[in-house]
Structures are given as C-alpha cells and as structure tokens.
Amino acid sequence: MVTPTPALPIISIAPYLPATYADYSDADRAAVAAQFHAACRDVGFLYLNVEGFLLKDDMDEVLTLGTEFFERPQEEKEKIHIGSMDGARGYQRYGENITQGKADHHEGLDLYAANPYEAVEAGAKPRPLQGDNQYPKTPAGLQPALEAWVDKMHVLGEAVMHAMALGLGMDEAEWKAFWKLSNKSFWSMRLIGYPPLPPNADGRSCGEHKDYGNLTFLHTDSTPDALQVLSRSGEWINANPVPGCVVVNIGAMWDKWTGGMYPATLHRVIHKAPTYRVSLPFFFEPNFDSNITLLDAAKRTAAKEGIELVPEPDVLYGDYLLGKVSGNFKY
Ligand SMILES: N=C(N)NCCCC[C@H](N)C(=O)O
Ligand SMILES: O=C(O)CCC(=O)C(=O)O
Ligand SMILES: [Fe+2]
Fold first, then answer.
1. d(CA 212, ligand 3 centre) in Å
2. What is the pLDDT of residues 204-231, one digit of tens each?
3. Looking at ligand 2, which residue's alpha carbon is closest to its atom 10?
C-alpha cells in the first residue's frame, strides 16, 4: 500500500537565505532549526518552501528545456554519452542506470563539480569523476539554465546546512568549522527523463536507494504518484510535488555525521502514468576530500534526548562517492 497524500513537513528557509536573513530574528532562525531537527530525526524527508528565492518561471523553464533535450534524436543525445568521458559525466540511455543490480527505467544527464584531480593527460581516458561535464548544445538555453540552477542550489545548500547545524545543537563557531567540510561542495546534479513504465511491468523507474551526500534538493514537474519515500513505520509514501517547494532528503553523510540520528531515507520512483516525467535532483555534498566523522553536537544532542547512536567508520567523501558511482552504469 502506498499512502496517497504527502505526510511530510513543509519548512520555509527564508530566515537563513542571504537576501532575507536580516528580515528575521535569531529566535525565528532557532524555530526553523528546531523544525529541521524534528524533520531529520523523525521523518527524513521534507518540503522546503523556496517561494521568493526560486521564481516559478525559472523553475518551469529549466524543466521545459530539459524535456526538449530528451525529445532530441537519440544519436544526438549520445554524442555526449558518459562512455565518451569518464563513465559518469554526461548522457546515459534508457536502462543504463543500475540500482540494486536492476536496470532503471529512465534516461538522464549527470553533472558533477569540477574534476577533483589533475587535468586529464592528452589522449588519456579520464578516470571516473575526472574530466569535464558534457552539456547538450540543443536546446541552447539548457546549459545556462542548468548552470544558473547550480548557483542557486549552492545558496540553498549553505542555508539548509546552517539551519541543520543549529538544529543539531551547534553554536555559530562550531557551524563555521563544520561548514569548511562542504564549502567546496563536490556537488552533483541529474536531469532525469522517465517514460511511463511498461504496463503490467513490476520494474522500477528508479530502484530504491539512499542518496550519497549531505542533502538532495529535488525539483520535478507536476506528475503525481511517482516518487515514493519509505516512512519510519515501513510504508511507502508518495512525495508528490508541492508548488513553490523542492523536496529535500537526507543523504548518507548526515547519517554518518549523526551516528544514525538523521538517517538517510530510502526512496524510489515508480512512474506509471502515461506521461513523460522530468526531474532535476541536485545533490549538495561535502568537499571531495572531506573526512566524515561523528559530530560532537550529535553526541551532545543524543545524550540530551536519550537517543542511542550507532557510529560508523570514518570515510572520505570522494572515496565513498567513487564506490557508488563505479557500480551505477552498465553500457
Ligand atoms: N547522486 C545520487 N545520489 N544519485 C542517486 C542515484 C540512484 C540510483 C543509483 N543507480 C544507485 O544505485 O545509487
Ligand atoms: O526523480 C526523482 O524523483 C528522484 C530521483 C532520485 O532519487 C535520484 O536520482 O537520486
Ligand atoms: Fe535519490
């Protein structure tokens, strides 16, 4: 059974955004931080109200341009195939993304922060996550719209990380130190196109998984009943789009930072309606070389709230990501 209506919290981020920060008091920010703490601890998914920060026209335009890209001839899309770069940056065909060993029913364009290594040697094949992003040439407006989106998502990323840090019980000095782990975010972004699942197929548009980093900001078209999230009581809930909001979910790095107090939530996409669905998840991640270790603030808050933490071994974010990306494609 899938619960038909979203039972997820809606949080307004305006008190933490640079353009509106001064309009709010520290008490307002503490209230928002407390909302994040409850949502991350108890639910794992939330809606972020971004009205006034993201304009409806821009939100619509980036998906319209994305749809136009997916409508281009297959051979044109394949000119920027991931196989002609590092195996991760670029276009992937329908069925090439693998989740839990099974092909997903979607096509996509994957983008990442700049190459974290030395430049690719002339004539050499880029290693995974090395090299450059491959942007479509047509429609011409898509690359600038995606680049503008990435800039906006960085502003949102810092604001939400700040609110979550305070919600976890950090003071401003601790937050400043903590921010250094994500201030050169090895971000990632996917433009995903989902044809309807074949009738009577029990396949997955995107199989169940957890996201890899800090936070995901998901913008989708208005298609309902596609994205599902696993509630703490073990039911799949439809996280349907809410106008003026992006869906936020917690990734594996916050799970590690908090010893499981903010668990990364399982989610999946099952899109059966007879329309072509387009989504744009932006993954706000730590720096490539950040070491992720249990936070003191998590230990303090857990002790105060009587929560038992389950610490995990430290990881370097870049190593963790490479481990995931290397298993993601079959082509
Ligand atoms: N960058 C992120 N988080 N991407 C999530 C992709 C999820 C599907 C992927 N095949 C997997 O198995 O993880
Ligand atoms: O398309 C969606 O709604 C979600 C996609 C997703 O979960 C992902 O790419 O990590
Ligand atoms: Fe995801």
1. 8
2. 999 999 999 999 999 999 999 999 999 9
3. 211
